[in-house]
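Much of what follows relies on a compact textual record of a protein's fold. Here is one such record, which you should read through line by line:
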Amino acid sequence: MSLPAIYSFPPLYTRQPNAIIRNKQIDSWINILLQYSKIEKIWELDSNGIFLPNEINLFENNTINRSVNNTFIKEILDRMKSDHQIIYNNNNETNTFFILWKNLDSWASLILEWFETTNKLNQVVTFYEISSGDESINWEFHSMPSYLISKILQILVKRGRATILKDEYNKDIAIKVV
């Protein structure tokens, strides 16, 4: 993926003192992070802004010998949290986030559309089929972690459109959408 031209602009890496310029700067960083995660289908980010599992750090640009300091990274991630563009990954003990280039309601609607398009309504479908099955390959949610799928599918449950099925360990494993 080629990154936008602003990614090579040295002042992007230094927190700007003027609030208006800093807000635009943070917007630029958020746009870079969201676009990168969407194109590369990377779902997870740690508290230092490093994409997992490949440990890709967009906040460091060796070509221009610049990097963003941890305080500013935290400010960018805090804005993303408040804008619901990242959410905590409560599935593990680490301090990681799921990155969302769509909001949770939009993801739920997209998965509902997949159920309708593939004629899966009123059938039990596993989370594996949704995230890794052959019928979801060309859908944007393909490869999404099952914990994030579970969180998104809870929205369909709240809408009265679905029931989640659990295994013997009380883990969400499948869903039936009506």
Summary: The CA atoms of residues 7 and 32 lie 8 Å apart. Residues 5-99 form a domain with the Arc Repressor Mutant, subunit A fold (CATH 1.10.10.570).
